[in-house]
Amino acid sequence: MAARIKEVTAHSPCAACGIRAGDVLVSVNGHKIADVLDYMYYSAEAEIRLLLERGSGHVMVKIVKSEYDDLGLTFDSFLMDSKQSCRNKCVFCFIDQMPPGMRETLYFKDDDARLSFLQGNYVTLTNLSDEDVRRIIDMRLGINVSVHTTNPELRCRMMNNRFAGEKLKYLYQIAEAGLSMNCQIVVCPGLNDGDELRRTLADLGKLMPNINSIAAVPVGLTAYREGLYPLTLFDSKGAGECIDIMEEFQREFYEKYGTRLVFPSDEFYLTAGRPIPREEYYEGYPQYENGVGMLRSLEDEFYEALEKAVGEVSYRGLLDRELSIATGVLAYDFIKSLTEKVTEKFPNIKCHVYRIENRFFGETITVAGLLTAGDIMEQLADNPLGTELLLTSAMIKHDSDLFLDDHRICDVEKALGVKIRLTENDGGDLLNAILGR
How far apart are CA 73 and CA 264, in angstroms? Predict the structure, then answer.
């Protein structure tokens, strides 16, 4: 496969050699280029030969550069190939539970090992062939794996893919090759919890030291499950039992390997009504993007920033300020407790915190990142909002101003008559936004 060059960066090694947009890259040092991984791997050397198609002929270019220096080429697509879509129909798949009529890109399920290496996506291994795994091993690529269960029969049933069980062999082959992986388990009551969760954790523990971490997250269910597998949500008791199982293995893993290895997501603790563990428990937050330790990190950063702010002269003369925060049901009590600490220290600040129920996906979805503009506008209408409304940036599509329901930030500002300020999942950023910094 060849890849058409869309752009050549000025003053780059390729620009200096006369390579131009429209040329087609055929091979690097004699290796045919199938996708971005081949391109990155074979072009890392200090001395390379590029074979290009130009018009009806071919051009060979030799480049000498520093090892790993970027060549300066941009292609028509990031992967230089189409994304690999998921071949499973998992009983817990969130995309299968989405309402109709949303933008088309939200319904695409990727299961692409290349995106796992490049962007941290999780893959189920069902898209991989023996050749793909050899390439992962040869290129020494670290990937993230959606395991869910190490019981082959149960894995086939949960993923609705008759090959899902046998594809577990790739997990063991990658580990035996000495490559490190992060793993995740979506835990579903009555399927892969209890003894099945114990089996999965015991099996993954045998792959040490080639498992970096394991995240366990509870299944999320929307109101759009007609015709789908009959799943239920965790209640307080069930969530607590899952935490107990993981803590049992944490003690064993820590004794053997010096790491707790498996970490329940914050949602498990909130559902079980248990306190979020301290910072040292999370061992550097290896599964932060999976919602593991986010609240602990946010709270610690927030209180550290608040302590500094109380002592700073620049904060003492803050003018009266009224603002509001809208968040999901799950984090409402947590966010409310943070704002109460601020108003204790700065009585001239008035902060309204609003719990927004998710009527778009269904009220069983309680995380702030899946709230829509429509729900926010409807539930905040006629409420005091102050001069600013704070929302987490997780509600907004990356590199855009779109909510999940395709309303824009300006639509919400116009409807509610208030300026919106987005905050990152960072305690210092949240405090600055509350204080109007």
Answer: 41
DSSP 243-291: HHHHHHHHHHHHHHHSS--EEE-HHHHHHHT-PPPPGGGGTT-TTGGGT
**Which pLDDT score is estimated for 1?**
61
Side-chain-side CA neighbours of 300 within 13 Å: the count stands at 11
CA-to-CA distance for 432 and 437, rounded, in angstroms? Answer: 5
Q: Which residue has the tokens 């399927």?
A: 191
Fold of 3-75: Pdz3 Domain (2.30.42)
How many Cβ atoms are within 10 Å of 173's Cβ, its own excluded?
15
Residue pair 218/234 in contact by the 8 Å Cβ criterion: yes
Q: What is the per-residue pLDDT for 44?
A: 87
- Residue-wise pLDDT for 41-88, tens only, equals 888 888 999 999 998 889 999 998 887 888 888 888 777 777 788 889
Domain boundaries, the chain: 3-75, 95-290, 297-435
Q: Which CATH number fits domain 297-435: 3.40.50, 3.60.21, 1.10.1740, 3.30.390?
A: 3.40.50
Looking at CATH, the fold of the domain delimited by 95-290 is given as: pyruvate-formate lyase- activating enzyme (3.80.30)
- E strand or H helix at 40, and its extent? helix 36-42
Strands (E), 306-384: 321-328, 349-356
Nearest to 372 by CA among 398, 408, 400, 399: 408
> Which residues does 413 contact at the CB level (< 8 Å), separation at least 6?
419, 420
Q: Report which residue type is found at 235.
A: D
Strand 181-187 relative to strand 211-218: parallel, antiparallel, unpaired?
parallel
In this structure, the number of other CB atoms found within 10 A of the CB of residue 288 comes to 16
What pLDDT sits at residue 33? 84
pLDDT in tens, 340-362: 999 999 988 999 999 999 999 99
> What SS3 state is found at 85?
strand
Q: Which residues of the chain have pLDDT under 70?
A: 1, 112, 117-118, 313-318
- Judge contact between 42 and 48, C-beta under 8 A: yes
User: 172: which 2 tokens?
Assistant: 């063991």
Q: How far apart (Å, rounded) are the C-alpha atoms in residues 384 and 368?
A: 20
**CB-CB contact of 324 with 384 (8 Å):** yes
Amino acid (one-letter) located at 288: Y
Neighbours of 422 (CB within 10 A): 15
